[in-house]
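Incident log, entry 3
Record: Phage tail assembly protein (118 residues)
Problem: checksum mismatch between cached and fresh output.
Input:
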Amino acid sequence: MSLHTEYPFTLPKGYVDEEGTLHRAGVMRLACARDEIEPLRDPRVKENESYGTVIVLARVITELGTLPRVNTSVVERMFAGDFAYLQDFYRVINFGDPSVLEELEPGAPFPQASLEAG
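Fresh output:
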């Protein structure tokens, strides 16, 4: 049995970059402890605790469309629905049962039970 560490996703709406290109398909890797610890040192998190989620997502999203890199500026400019989707996706692959991903349509909302698992 091998450990699956990267998971593809499709944003419900998609991220629109500065040139107007829509990016929906991406990949998120499993988080390590450092991904959750490092943001606590960031002054933006000390000012607003919720910003930690932005930093964590920017660290674990390894691909998004044709963007060369995903950083906090990209995550900040995502539509609220896509941001919520990525938070749920993060919880499912890191703390829940990733097998539920196989049953979902790309960009579909997650079943509540899969978010409560783990």
